[in-house]
Transmembrane 9 superfamily member
Amino acid sequence: MALPLISRKKQYAAVVYLTLLFQACNGFYLPGSYMHTYSTGDKIYAKVNSLTSIETELPFSYYSLPYCKPHGGVKKSAENLGELLMGDQIDNSPYRFHMNLNESVYLCTTLPLSEHEVTLLKQRTRDLYQVNMILDNMPAIRYTDQNGVKIQWTGFPIGYSPANSNDYYIINHLKFRVLIHEYEGAAVEVIGTGEGGMGFISQADKNKTSGYEIVGFEVVPCSVKYDPEKMAKLNIYDNFTTVSCPQELDKSQVIRERERVSFTYEVEFVKSNIRWPSRWDAYLKMDGARVHWFSILNSLVVILFLASIVFVIFLRTVRRDLTRYDELDKESQAQMNEELSGWKLIVGDVFREPSHSKLLCVMVADGVQITGMAIVSIVFAALGFMSPASRGMLLTGMIILYLFLGIAAGYVGVRMWRTIKGHSDGWSSVSWSIACFFPGIVFVILTALNFVLWGSRSTGAIPISLYFILFSLWFCISVPLTLLGGFLATQAEPIQYPVRTNQIPREIPARKYPSWLLILGAGTLPFGTLFIELFFILSSIWLGRFYYVFGFLLIVLILLITVCAEVSVVLTYMHLCVEDWMWWWKAFYASGSVSLYVFLYSINYLVFELQSLSGPVSAILYLGYSLIIAVAIMLSTGTIGFLVSFYFVHYLFSSVKID
């Protein structure tokens, strides 16, 4: 009687606590960085991210070029694990604004450009490098008109070179347009997870929240030739006369040795009706959205229809075989076994240990880890927990999830090892192999790519300190959890086979066609579920576009899992029908072969969509990262197909009457 009383008291206390919490918090905002409000005249500093280009895919530091530096030196902003791995390097900048005050400001005049600086500026301009500025956690965007169509770009170019000229011109004057929304303090608590960490606006501070919030950050880049002698007399942040962007080349700032470049900017604050929670809408609008939705929907409907037909026919066939077999008496079954061929004749061999069984257990275990990470990450992203305002959070979350899912990988891998071997000997070796297999592949590829990035002096190179951090996370979290999962699997009941395995293996009849041909063909159907979405994902990675349709990605993931399971089961059944009892690896690669098509599609995307990608270094980086993605997809889809096939074969032969 005491326990229910205590339980009721706890429930009552929880209800009272939640009631008080909701009274204190009339509303909240999740996700994204917490809302900043500024009063008129408040100082706001812009930040700068790495210079990026779709031509090379090699990020470089903003201050690797002769730009004005802030007072007090360059200071890096706090970066999370995902930002570091993506090559982001966010630094402070001298660009300073005063809230709701329009002004034209002088920054600095450089020393005479050296030969090295001129060469570097021209090279970065030829490679179409973009300057990426950030204000209140929002990247700067610019608009251009191409054939009457308004196109949105993130960032602005370093410079440009006219079509009929050999000269290069630097962007040295920026016209900023900051959209602001007037905000009046209310009984609102704001909760967020931005780059400033968790932030709260409490009830007591509601009067302080009145002011302006930044809801847009636009830039118009210009090249203006100034008199360096006259401009050098000015001090930083001195006001000067507003200038218009010149159209004549002789009034633009040329990149030439011994030239002195003056940097200026002007800012205009424009009141907007856009509210703070909707300020990212301008960035998340995808070109050809209608085509995107209808193409995916069409693919989903067609593939679901085909998969359902195959699955229904398949179920009817298996059920008919089982019904006919069960209706016979023992003598008739023996006679049937002598007269007929098919999956019923390999009862004594179907669960024979496969070749390289340890490797199979390791790959399936790593596939469980990757699949779990992908499902949880996409579900949270689809629910809105992965805001674009939180840079690198998606990648950081995926890494953390992968580390903690090591316990599931160890459990599945070691339990399968016990099932195949019939004992637990060597489980620690299997657990260590699980912990090292996929991370080892990624480590080798990333290290090779890192040497390429180090040679190019790119900010995309992973620093040695980050290597130690990643190694520590892996060794202190993933490895112990994988070993713990393996230990728990040794304590669990092993999966019992429904039939006995014969001492002498049955000879497999010769086939008219090789098995690998069926396996390659099986991968086309899963690939059909994701190739359209794959195009948009590759575009977001390599063309710098925002990808934020995680709801559709979740639907595609569910459909991919379903189709992988169906394809693998159908192919396994086909092999069993031709008396091929070596189905283990074939079930894995039947669905895992989709990774081959993903890699080939990545090469196709490189050739036809990234034609501007220049140099072998960029191609090596692209292919290296594509290979990591393909391996991860192979392990994930192969695991899905294998586990479903294993339970199908187990169910199929447990339904047959055996003496």
